[in-house]
Amino acid sequence: MLLIYVRHGQPIYDPDSLTPLGERQAEALAKRLALFGVDKIYSSTSERAIRTAKPTCELLNKEAELLDFCNEKYAAADLGVGEGANWNWAFAHREVKEKLMNPEVTAMGFDWYRHPSLAPYDLSRGIERVYRETDRLLASLGFEHDRFTGRYRVTGEKYKRVALFAHQGFSTLFFSCLMDIPYPLFATRFNISHSAFSVVDFAAGSDISEPQILTLSSDAHLYKEGLPLRYNGDSRLQF
User: Fold this and answer.
1) What is the C-alpha end-to-end distance of the chain, expressed in Å?
2) Residues 110-127, buried b or exposed e (16+ Cβ, 10 A)?
3) CA-CA distance, 207 to 156, in Å (whole number)?
């Protein structure tokens, strides 16, 4: 199974939607996904994710199944620090990021959030929720997660190609779980751009699967359609 994780297009956060450029990004993405097809489409319940998935659903004549646990509002509530203008993701908050990257914290592996320096932030709830629901989703697709070995037991592959339209902040939790990489290591070192997609190969050739990320944050569809290649809209980051 190929799992294709798509971040929504350039967003309007309030009210939840897409900018005109975000709509064009979603259309470009749909053309790319339609080249090889997608057997199953999932989307976060946020409007910006649903609107990004819409062109793909229309081209492939499929309906997206909505997954509320992917909605970034929950991840933001559980893995955010501060309030109002001072709010930020834990992995991007200067003070907390320093703690996440502390060798003592990273040495604790998946028990990282038990480190005394992180106790004031109560980050465990969001981690446990997303890990639990991600494992449940993968099990429904025929891949049961063995956390002890970091592998998946193949119980019956349901689809060859699956697309999930969701978010950047949520993705740090999702990929941490999926790839058995402790959250501090993944969240502080990897990022994905608007409408970019990442592909994970579950290679179910036997009864055991060891997933690999084949590409992370690909935006080739934007290049093909002549759309701006600014990373998350940042004019400093064009490549």
Assistant:
1) 30
2) eebbebeebeebebeebb
3) 9
- DSSP character string of the chain: -EEEEEE-SSEEETTEEE-HHHHHHHHHHHHHHHHH--SEEEEESSHHHHHHHHHHHHHHT--PEEEGGG-HHHHHHHHEES-GGG-EETTTSHHHHHHHT-HHHHTTGGGGGGSGGGGGG--HHHHHHHHHHHHHHHHHTTEEEETTTTEEEES----SEEEEEE-HHHHHHHHHHHHT--HHHHHTT----TT-EEEEE---SSSEE--EEEEEEE-HHHHHTT---BGGG-TT-B-
Q: Is the dihedral of CA 223, 227, 232, 233 positive or negative?
A: positive
| Structural domains for the chain | 2-91+122-233 (3.40.50.1240)
Cα–Cα distance, 116 to 32 (Å, whole number): 46
Give 124-163 pLDDT, tens digit per residue. 989 999 999 999 999 999 999 999 999 999 999 999 999 9
The pTM (predicted TM-score) of the whole model is 0.95
| Torsions phi, psi for 81 (to 5 deg) | -130, 135
CB-based contact 210:225 (threshold 8 Å) = no
**Per-residue pLDDT reduced to its tens digit, 65-88:** 999 999 999 999 999 998 888 899
Going 87 to 89 to 95 to 99, the CA torsion angle's sign is positive
Q: Is 136 exposed, middle or buried (0-12, 13-18, 19+ CB in 10 A)?
A: exposed
Identity of residue 127: I
